[in-house]
Every structure is written in C-alpha cells, then in structure tokens.
Design goal:
Layout: E1 2-13, E2 21-32, E3 36-41, H1 47-54, E4 62-67, E5 70-71, H2 78-84, E6 85-88, H3 101-111, H4 116-129, H5 145-157, E7 163-167, H6 175-192, E8 195-199, H7 203-206, E9 211-216, E10 219-224, H8 226-230, H9 233-238, H10 245-255, H11 267-277
Parallel strand pairs: 3-8, 3-9, 6-7, 7-8
Antiparallel strand pairs: 1-2, 1-4, 4-5, 9-10
Helix pairs in contact: 3-4, 3-5, 4-5, 5-6
The protein binds adenosine-5'-diphosphate and magnesium ion.
Adenosine-5'-diphosphate binds next to strand 2 and helix 1.
C-alpha cells in the first residue's frame, strides 16, 4: 500500500514574479508504506522542495501530494499529516530547542496535550529506540552531531510518527556520526516498519535503501533498486552523480578487460569477485 503519492506535482517558487522558478516539474511517484527510499540528485535538482511537500511545509503549485490518503492541501488534515511525518534536516544545531535532551524529545507530545505520564513513557521509549537513553538529562550542546541528529529522530518518534523524511541528515557529520545516524534509521525501518525517505549525497548510504529515486532539474530521472541504479555507472556519471566506490572500481576494471560480474555494489562483493577472478587479496 502506498503511504505517499505525488500526482503530477509541480512547485513554482515566486510564481508570477520576475524570479519565478519551477523547482518541481510534474513528478509522479508513489512510496510504499514501510519502504526505505533514497532520493539522489545534484544540488538544485529539487530534492528538498519535494521532501517539504510530504509534511505540507510546501504546497503544490499544481498536482497533488497525498500522505496516507490525505491531501496536504486540505487544511483540516494538515496536523494529522504532520503528526505522521517527522522531518530531520541537515543542520543538527538548528533542530534542538530545549536545554535538556528529554525536554526536547517531549516538546512535540507536549504540544499535542498528551498526559505527562504518557509523555514520560514515550520519551523513554523514543530515546531507547535511537540508543540515547543514557543522555536523557544531558544538555544538547554537549552531544556530537550524530547524537544530536538521533535526538531529533527521537523527537519525531515521540510523536508516534509513521514516516521519517531526512534531508541530508549526515551532510554535516563525521564518518562515525554518519554511521550512527544511518544505522539508527535502518533499525527503525527494519524493526518498527517506519517508512523512510532519505536524501543523501553519500552513495554508500544509498546502498541501504529498498529503492532509489534520482532527480534532475525537478524531474525524476531514474528509479530502481540500488543495484539497478548503481550498475548504470555511465548514466550516473553523465548526470553528474557518483556511484559507490566498489561499483566504480568494478566498472573501471571491466573497462580494462577484467571479466567481473556486472552487479557489484559493495566492498565485500568487489573483494569476492576479485578473489574469484584469481587476485589474491590477503
Ligand atoms: P536540492 O535540495 O536538490 O538541492 P532544492 O529543492 O533546494 O534542491 O532547490 C531546487 C531549486 O529551487 C534550486 O534551483 C533552488 O535554487 C530553487 N529554490 C529553492 N528554494 C527556493 C526559494 N525559497 N525561493 C526560490 N527558489 C528556491
Ligand atoms: Mg536540498
């Protein structure tokens, strides 16, 4: 069943003004409930604009965005939609507002008017789900970037969100923070069935998805499984995008005449293929 549907979605910034700009030009896309979708694309291709439609931060210029069957343009449904879709943005320092971690996670449910006891149990549960229960009474500024992003995710979970939309959540993090955030997201998808829409420019992160959508100039340029997308090395390069290092290396070696399988995407697969080819690697 699809959880998010875009029908002929367009989004024009500054419509009718001299500087009007069509950032989304007729997108049709359906995202299944419980799926993990990665959106890739060059800077300015419309990824963030598309993402902001999912919880009604932006509304369509034309076309429709449905979330769990509700139209984001229907003002009566907007709060129900926002409760179901948690957003996590790039900058970990812009998202936490309270002086103590647990107050930050409690902020959303408090605004829903939920009873204090229920809030406490939701906060504990959410912090546990992101592996941050030990930091409950910490001040957010003492946390690393990866930990701050996990607290932002916990804030969404405390609202009982069914979908997380993460817009380059690891762009400002070090490799350890990136791994923490990706592992947390993957676990929430695997264990709680939360629908994930994850925008990234790290190809190694995109490998974790069920499906990749590639955007270019406000349109969907390609979609498929990570394997389908990353095996088209030339098409990705022509579109100004990278592929995971292992896929790139395999492609170069194939070009040099090595007969390697065409489906290599991870380091492990590359190592196995090279060993099978007869290259001693250890
Ligand atoms: P991405 O996230 O893929 O980098 P965006 O969705 O942020 O792309 O932007 C798509 C295009 O829309 C870009 O050309 C950008 O300059 C333009 N754009 C984004 N936000 C605004 C805005 N608030 N006003 C005008 N143009 C905008
Ligand atoms: Mg963006």
């Amino acid at each position: 069943m699809s959880f998010i549907e875009f029908h002929d979605l367009t989004h024009c910034y500054n419509q009718g003004q001299e500087n009007e700009y069509m950032a989304i030009c007729g997108v049709n896309l359906s995202i299944e409930q419980g799926s993990f979708t990665v959106i890739l694309g060059r800077n300015g291709s419309g990824k963030s604009t598309l993402a902001k439609h999912i919880n009604g931060l932006l509304l369509p210029t034309s076309g429709v965005c449905l979330v769990d069957g509700r139209d984001t343009q229907d003002m009566d449904d907007l709060w129900a939609i926002r409760r179901q879709v948690g957003m996590v943005f790039q900058n970990p320092d812009n998202q936490l507002i309270a002086a103590v971690v647990e107050d930050d996670v409690a902020f959303g449910p408090e605004n829903l008017g939920i009873a204090p006891q229920e809030i406490r149990s939701r906060v504990d549960e959410a912090l546990k789900a992101v592996g941050m229960e030990k930091y409950k009474s910490f001040a957010p500024h003492l946390l690393s970037g990866g930990q701050k992003q996990r607290i932002a995710i916990a804030g969404a979970l405390a609202m009982r969100t069914r979908c997380l939309v993460l817009d380059e959540p690891t762009a400002m993090l070090d490799p350890q923070g990136r791994e923490e955030v990706l592992n947390t997201v993957r676990r929430l998808h695997d264990e709680q069935g939360i629908t994930i829409v994850y925008i990234t420019h790290f190809m190694e992160e995109a490998v974790a998805a069920d499906r990749i959508v590639v955007m270019d100039q406000g349109r969907i340029q390609a979609e498929g499984t990570p394997r389908e997308i990353f095996c088209e090395v030339e098409a990705m390069k022509a579109g100004g995008l990278d592929v995971p290092l292992a896929a790139e290396l395999a492609w170069r070696l194939r070009r040099e005449g090595m007969k390697l399988p065409g489906q290599i995407m991870t380091d492990e697969e590359l190592v196995q293929a090279l060993e099978a080819y007869g290259c001693p690697l250890s």
